[in-house]
């Protein structure tokens, strides 16, 4: 069975220290490193809000977000290559919390590493996700630890 350590990378969140921490843990246990990024899915109220405020069509917004996510993932992969770290990548659609829960239930996942945002203004979703996992870990719902690395 192949062991893996999953690292969440997301546009706007620092990734260098997170990847370095995860790669050290992967070497220690002989695991592969997987960079995971999430394409957010807009629910119906969010789509209605886009239409009401005439920001742009849902398709345009979604395509722009996809481009940003892919570009950011490529930058993180290049960082790994520059530092001699071999990684696999995976892009998943959905909510961050749900995607991480799915990865944590996978029997090959040994650890999930997420960056701890240092600024609340545009990272509130991740702070809430980290809080949620802290609660879930106490209830033993997850099969592996979720570690947050302070990304200063």
Structural write-up:
The structure is a single chain. The chain has helices at 16-29, 44-52, 58-82, 96-105, 124-138, and strands at residues 4-8, 32-39, 87-93, 109-116, 146-150. The chain has 152 residues and is an alpha/beta fold. The protein has five helices and five strands; from the N terminus they run βαβααβαβαβ. Helix 1 (16-29) links the parallel strand 1 (4-8) and strand 2. Strands 3-2-1-4-5 form a five-stranded parallel β-sheet, with helices on both faces. The radius of gyration is 16 Å and the shape is globular.
Helix and strand pattern: EHEHHEHEHE
- What oligomeric state is this? single chain
Q: Which percent range describes the beta-strand content?
A: 15-25%
Per DSSP, the total helix count is 5
User: Order of strands across the biggest sheet?
Assistant: 3-2-1-4-5
Low-confidence stretches: none
Could you say which structural class the secondary elements and strand pairing correspond to? Answer: alpha/beta
Mean pLDDT across all residues, rounded? 80
The gyration radius over C-alpha positions equals 16 Å
- Helix content estimate: 40-55%
Count of DSSP strands:
5
Shape: globular
Quote the distance from N terminus to C terminus.
34 Å
Largest sheet: 5 strands, parallel
Layout of helices and strands:
Elements: E1 4-8, H1 16-29, E2 32-39, H2 44-52, H3 58-82, E3 87-93, H4 96-105, E4 109-116, H5 124-138, E5 146-150
Parallel strand pairs: 1-2, 1-4, 2-3, 4-5
């Amino acid at each position: 069975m192949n062991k893996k350590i999953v690292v969440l990378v997301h546009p706007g969140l620092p990734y260098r220290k997170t990847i370095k921490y995860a790669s050290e843990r992967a070497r220690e246990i002989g695991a592969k490193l997987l960079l995971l990024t999430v394409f957010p899915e807009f629910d119906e109220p969010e789509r209605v809000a886009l239409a009401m405020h005439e920001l742009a069509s849902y398709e345009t917004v979604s395509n722009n977000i996809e481009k940003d996510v892919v570009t950011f993932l490529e930058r993180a992969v290049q960082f790994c290559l520059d530092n001699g770290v071999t990684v696999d990548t995976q892009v998943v659609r959905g909510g961050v919390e749900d995607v991480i829960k799915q990865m944590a239930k996978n029997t090959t996942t040994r650890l999930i590493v997420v960056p701890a945002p240092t600024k609340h203004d545009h990272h509130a979703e991740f702070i809430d996700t980290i809080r949620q996992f802290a609660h879930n870990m106490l209830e033993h719902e997850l099969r592996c630890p979720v570690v947050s690395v302070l990304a200063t």
